[in-house]
Design brief:
418 residues; alpha/beta; 6-stranded mixed beta sheet; globular
Length: 418
C-alpha cells in the first residue's frame, strides 16, 4: 500500500489508547478524527487506578497458575473469578490462557512486555513534555506489600525478572524500612518491594481529557458516533456509523473491550475477554497515603486520586453484559480498613469498568489480517494507561510505514490462530 506523508486517519475509541494514538498521529502530520460512541474517557479510562505501572512485566498466565486457578475461580469474591453466567463462553479464552503458561511462551511474553514498557516509559515523558502535563503526574513510587517471610520469598522470582530487565527496586524486610516510605500500615505487612520509578497521574479522567484537549487545540476532531460497519476499499476504508458513513485512508481500532466486535466486522475472530475491575473512590483522604500501595495477594491497590483515595482491583471474567457485583468492591473496603488503620470506608462512590484482556496479557498492536488499511491497538488488560504512550508511537510508526521502534511479532493479531 502506498502511504502519503499526510493521511486522513480515523481512530475508533476515545479511551486512553485511542486518544493518545490520535495525538501521536496528529504530531506526525496526519489529519485525525477520533470516534467514540459515548465520548472521551466515558468508559474504563475514567476510573482506573491512575498508575503508570512500568514495573509490571509479568503476565497473568504464569507457569503453575492453573493449579491455583480452580480455587480462585470458585470464590466469587476472590482476586480472580469467573461469573457463572459467563463460564461456558470463556472456555476458548481459558484454553489459550493455559497454552500461554508454558515456560517458553511465558518467557517470550515477559520479554515482549518489558520491551513495550521501556518504550512506553520513554514515550510518556515525551507526552508530558509536549503537552505541558507535569502538573498531572505524581512521582511517588509504589509499595508491593507482603504478609510474612513465606509470601515474600515466593515473590522473589518475579523481582529477579524485573532486575534482569533493568527495573529499579528496593526490597524491604522489616516494618521500620516500610514505615519510612509509608507509615501507618498494619503490622501484618512485614516485607515489601519498592519501585521508585513508578508514576501515577493525579486523575486518569483528567489525564485523558488533557490529551484530548491538546488534540482538538491542534485541529483534531472528536466525533460522538457508534461504528456499525467497516468496509476496506482499494483506496481507503468506509466507516459506517449511526450518523453516516465516513471515509479514511487508514483506520485505527482502539475501542478497548469492544474492539473484538469491530474486528469481527472484518472477519477477524480475536479471543478478547473482559477483566471487570471494581473500585470505590473517596473525595477526601482519611489515610495519609504517600505512595501507591499494591496488595498482591489480595488483588487490589490503594492510590491517590485528586485529593482523595481510590480502592480497587481484582479480576472478574464476566463479559460485557452481566450486571456488576459490587460485593467485590465492598470486600476490598473491608480489607483496606484492616490494612490501613484509621481508614474510613464510608462515603465513597462505587464503579465497575471493562478491561480488555488477551490470554497472554500482551496487547495486539498490528495491521489487521484482513486489511492492511486497518490497525489494531487493543487488549492491554489493566495496563492500558501504562502502555498508552508507547502503543501510540507504534501505531504512528505503522500508519506512516516506518520500522516500529520495537519488534511487533509478539503483538501480532494472528498469534492465537483463526
Amino acid at each position: 500500500m502506498t502511504r502519503t506523508t499526510q493521511s486522513q486517519i480515523i481512530v475508533i475509541g476515545a479511551g486512553i489508547i485511542g486518544v493518545t494514538a490520535a495525538l501521536a498521529l496528529q504530531t506526525q502530520g496526519h489529519h485525525v478524527r477520533l470516534l467514540d460512541r459515548k465520548g472521551v474517557a466515558a468508559e474504563t479510562s475514567a476510573g482506573n487506578a491512575g498508575a503508570f505501572a512500568f514495573a509490571e512485566i509479568e503476565p497473568l498466565a504464569t507457569p503453575g497458575i492453573m493449579k491455583k486457578a480452580p480455587k480462585w475461580l470458585l470464590d466469587p469474591l476472590g482476586p480472580l473469578s469467573v461469573r457463572p453466567g459467563h463460564a461456558l463462553r470463556i472456555l476458548p479464552w481459558m484454553w489459550h490462557f493455559w497454552r500461554a503458561t508454558a515456560h517458553h511462551r511465558y518467557d517470550a511474553a515477559v520479554a515482549a512486555q518489558a520491551s513495550l514498557m521501556t518504550l512506553s516509559r520513554q514515550a510518556l515523558e515525551r507526552v508530558i513534555r509536549t503537552t505541558d502535563a507535569q502538573a498531572l503526574i505524581r512521582r511517588e513510587g509504589q509499595l508491593q506489600l507482603y504478609e510474612g517471610a513465606a509470601q515474600f520469598q515466593a515473590s522473589l522470582p518475579a523481582w529477579e525478572q524485573r532486575r534482569r530487565h533493568g527495573i529499579a527496586f528496593e526490597l524491604l524486610d522489616n516494618a521500620d524500612a516500610i514505615a519510612r516510605i509509608q507509615p501507618g500500615l498494619s503490622p501484618r505487612f512485614t516485607h515489601a518491594g519498592f519501585t521508585p520509578d513508578w508514576l501515577n497521574t493525579v486523575d486518569p479522567l483528567r489525564w485523558t481529557r488533557h490529551l484530548a484537549h491538546a488534540l482538538t487545540e491542534r485541529g483534531g476532531q472528536i466525533v460522538t458516533a457508534a461504528v456499525t460497519d467497516l468496509a476496506p476499499r482499494p483506496d481507503g476504508v468506509d466507516v459506517t456509523t449511526d450518523i453516516g458513513t465516513l471515509r479514511a485512508d487508514q483506520v485505527v481500532v482502539a475501542a478497548g473491550a469492544w474492539s473484538h466486535r469491530i474486528a469481527r466486522m472484518l472477519g477477524d475472530r480475536i479471543p478478547l475477554e473482559t477483566e471487570r475491575g471494581y473500585n470505590t473512590t473517596f473525595p477526601t483522604a482519611s489515610f495519609d497515603l504517600r505512595t501507591h500501595l499494591t496488595f498482591g495477594a489480595h488483588g487490589f491497590v490503594v492510590t491517590r486520586i485528586g485529593d482523595g483515595l481510590r480502592v480497587g482491583g481484582a479480576v472478574e471474567l464476566g463479559g460485557l453484559n452481566l450486571p456488576p457485583n459490587f460485593k467485590r468492591a465492598e470486600i476490598l473496603l473491608r480489607k483496606t480498613a484492616r490494612f490501613l488503620p484509621g481508614f474510613d470506608p464510608t462515603g465513597g462512590t462505587q464503579w465497575m469498568g471493562f478491561r480488555p484482556s488477551l490470554p497472554d496479557s500482551l496487547p495486539i498492536i498490528a495491521r489487521a489480517p484482513k486489511s492492511d488499511r486497518v490497525i489494531y491497538a487493543f487488549g492491554h488488560g489493566h495496563l492500558g494507561l501504562t502502555q498508552s504512550a508507547g502503543t501510540a508511537e507504534l501505531v504512528a510508526d505503522l500508519v506512516s510505514g516506518r520500522r516500529p521502534q520495537i519488534p511487533l511479532l509478539p503483538f501480532r493479531a494472528t498469534r492465537f490462530g483463526g
